Each structure stands twice: as structure tokens, then as C-alpha cells.
Amino acid sequence: MKYNDIASLIESLSERDLSILESLRTHRALATALIRRLHFPVGSEPREAGTGKSHATEMAAAVATIRVLTRLESHRLITRLQRRIGGVRAGSTGIVWQLGASGERLLRTRHGDPNRRRYSEPSPAFIAHTLAAAGLAIQLQELARQGVIELLRLEAEPECWRTFLSAHGARQWLKPDLFAITAAGNYENHVFIEADNATEHAPVIVRKALRYQQYANSGIHQKKHGLFPAVAWVAPDTKRQTAICAALAGESRLRDLVSAGLFHVVTTAEFPAFITGSHTGPTTP
Q: How far are the Cα atoms of 177, 198, 273 from residue 126, in angstroms, in the given order?
């Protein structure tokens, strides 16, 4: 089937089709397994509006996911990257997708965005980091769908980036991986999130923490929201968690913020409990 214009193509797509494209626009790249979790619920999993009924099993959901993605690929709405997560053995679940030429053009039309984005094969490091951040964002959305939290705001890159003036008047950028505002009961939690893949050395971690300190000192966020968010590094394992804690605690220039409990370091496994406030172990350096 061929489409002569974007308008007719949009009309041919389901609400779920469009949601998948929007997810790829937001996160830049997603593995099949992440798309399944977002858009193809299983059993009693809460459904996204417009996605239809839940699938009986994860296998049925996986089959439906790849069927829909293959159809979208045939219209050049999405494209698969050459590198798979987990290698060939991962099968279709390890395929990584990004917007294709038609998908990018369709969403620009839908959003009235004149700026064309060029999508090329990203580096393995970029893919790994992008998927790690997307996985955390999807966990937040899942917690919200389950009714565990309210997800009042979720920003991915570059929407979550912040600009401010340094003490010397120079323009600076703070570039977290995610920014989220969640609520439970009468309390709101604001948090900048750093998805850590254990690829950066300690000085890089410290420089990023100092940039958060500079942004906090600017007072911009506090003026708008009345508070400064927590900053959470999410590490793949306890060894890396310990290393990040040591790097932050060992920097004298960060002493005030560390003692104030601004910085938190949790493992990927601990992240949901940290977000819901049910984590019982220490999270600060």
C-alpha cells in the first residue's frame, strides 16, 4: 500500500501506531522489548488508551509487537538499526528501532515542526545509554499505569536540559537524562535522573555533580518550582553504586550538597522503590 501524502498516511494509522512513533520521537531509539512494555500490555497490565485489549501472554504480545513494527517499517515510518542488543541470540526482542524518513516527516507535520532531524546509525555507546534512559522512563510510566505513583511530568533529552548563567555571566547547560515530577498522596517528588552505564570515570561524575551545584546556585529552578530537585544516579550494580558514592563523597566542593542529601545513588533494581519511597536502604553518598 502506498500513500501519496502525509495526511492520508496519518489517517491510515491507529492510535497505537501513532503512539509508537511518538515514543521513538521522544526517546530517539527503543528496543522491541521496550516498545512491547509501553504499548502491548499483557493480561491484567493497565492498557494505554486506544491500544485495544490486553494480550493473554507475553509471547502473544511479543508476536503482535513485531507484526506492528514490521508493518510500520514497510512504510518507512520506522527503521531498525544494524546492531542488536544482546546480539543475534536476542532475536526480535533485541532489535533497536528509530524513526524512519516517513515517520520523521509525518511527526514534523503533526507537530508543525519545520526543523528536519537527520537520523543515522548511532554508536554502540549512544545506543546503550539511550536505551538505559528509556528503560528508566518506561519504569516510571509503568508505575503510573499501575497506580503506584502519579506521573505529573516526564521529560527526556533534550527537553529536560536546562540553561543558566554561571557566576561569571557565561551561558551554561545542564544535561540530565530525565526529569520527572511524581506524586504520592499529598507529596510531590522532583528528580533529575542520570542513567549510568559504568562507562564514565570518577572525574566525569564529579564534573556533572558540580554542574548541578552551579545550577542550584543560580536559583532558577527554585524560583519556578519552590524547591530544587533531588539528583539520582542509577547504576547497573552495587559495585558501580559504591564507586559513584565514593566519587561524590570525596569531592570537597560538593560537601554541602552531599550532606544536604541532594545526591542519591541507586541501582537499577532499586530504582522503582526509590521513586515510590519504599526503598529501605541508604541512597545518599
A: 12, 13, 27
Alpha carbon distance, N-terminus to C-terminus of the chain: 57
Length of the chain: 285
Q: Are residues 101 and 150 in the same domain?
A: no
pTM for this structure? Answer: 0.90
Q: What 3-state class would DSSP assign to 103?
A: helix
Q: Are residues 109 and 138 in the same domain?
A: no
pLDDT value of residue 175? 98
Q: Where are the alpha helices (DSSP H) in 119-268?
A: 124-145, 202-218, 220-225, 238-249, 255-259
- Domain limit, last residue, from 91, 122, 153: 122
Buried b vs exposed e over 183-211: b needs ≥16 C-beta within 10 Å? eeeeeebbbbbbbbeeeeeeeebbebbeb
CB 161 within 8 A of CB 253: no
DSSP state of 254: G
- Average pLDDT over the chain, rounded to an integer: 89
pLDDT at 2: 45
Residue 183 parent element (H or E): strand 178-184
Burial class (CB in 10 A: 0-12, 13-18, 19+), 53: exposed
Cell of 238: 552495587
